[in-house]
Design brief:
The structure is a single chain. By secondary structure, the chain is an alpha/beta fold. The protein folds into 2 domains: 101 residues, no CATH class; 169 residues, no CATH class. The protein is built from 14 helices and 7 strands. The longest helix has 21 residues. It starts with a strand and ends with a helix.
């Protein structure tokens, strides 16, 4: 009998039941004393054989691998079967994910976005494409990656995508994210390692279950709801260069608004003389 480990992508998970409580000192939590004291994001289902649930995150694995406690890595090593949110090693999964992001009936983004917002988006993507060569690392160039290829891999066919997917795409077009392209995200890395170790792999969700909730968002309602909150983000970005901007507040707005669409995705775009204030643009949209 062999253990099994399931790892759906979770932004956050409750602390493992095995985590040891840390004593309080003056009302403050002490930092972990060692790797063994870190939150492992691992749940154990006590049975014979044991099963595990491990929470992963959508980031390059190199950002978090050294912080994953040994008990989680040991559970992965001991498991004969590993199940992920989606099977990202399956070409059909990748193809289906790309198809579900497209607008229906041959529509283009220009058909569904306000004119001014569409042109702000286009200007922003032109800026990103211009900056892409300077954002790339020597290691990426050494692997044969070119700026145009990388831009097309991330933003290709953007005019045919639904607004919510374009928003998520734009949110990943930062210098930090561009420089980490070519490094697999944590769940993909684990899937690749599972294949190398000859483990049995599978998925717990279908592509449709990922796409339909986002594709079902009402764009018209979201446009009205998010214009003002996103305008409030403008001062956080105008005093920074694009590559230094902090995008966590954008993600927070998205989460705090019950996953409605954040459509004013470009307040952090390149600040040029032809750009007007957020309030002025809000009046014209």
């Amino acid at each position: 009998m062999h253990a099994a480990l399931a790892g759906p992508l979770l932004a956050a998970l409750l602390a493992t039941a095995r985590a040891r409580p840390q004593p309080l000192d003056g009302g403050q939590c002490r930092p972990p004393g060692s790797q063994r004291d870190l939150n492992s994001f691992l749940w154990t289902i006590r049975r014979d054989p044991p099963a595990y649930l491990f929470g992963t995150i959508h980031v390059p694995y190199t950002r978090v691998w050294d912080f994953i406690p040994d008990n989680s890595k040991a559970a992965f090593q001991a498991s004969a079967r590993v199940y992920f949110e989606l099977d990202l090693t399956d070409p059909y999964t990748i193809s289906a994910l790309a198809s579900c992001q497209l607008l229906p009936h041959g529509e283009n983004l220009q058909d569904v976005l306000p004119r001014e917002l569409y042109w702000r988006l286009k200007r922003h993507l032109d800026y990103v494409k211009l900056m892409m060569p300077s954002w790339m690392t020597p290691a990426q160039r050494g692997k044969g990656l070119y700026a145009d290829y990388l831009f097309n891999a991330i933003a290709g066919n953007w005019e045919r995508k639904r607004p919510v997917w374009v928003m998520l795409m734009v949110n990943s077009l930062t210098e930090t994210d561009v420089r980490s392209r070519g490094v697999p995200v944590l769940d993909l890395y684990l899937a690749q390692q599972a294949e190398k170790m000859k483990k049995s792999t599978g998925a717990v969700e279908r592509v449709e279950e990922q796409c339909h909730p986002l594709n079902g968002l009402n764009f018209s309602q979201a446009l009205s709801r998010h214009r003002d909150p996103m305008c409030s983000l403008w001062p956080k970005f105008v005093d920074k260069s694009f590559q230094e901007a902090d995008f966590s507040s954008v993600e927070e707005e998205f989460a705090n608004s019950q996953r409605s669409l954040v459509v004013e995705w470009l307040p952090w775009g390149p600040v040029a003389s032809h750009d007007r204030s957020c309030s002025e643009e809000g009046q014209n949209l």
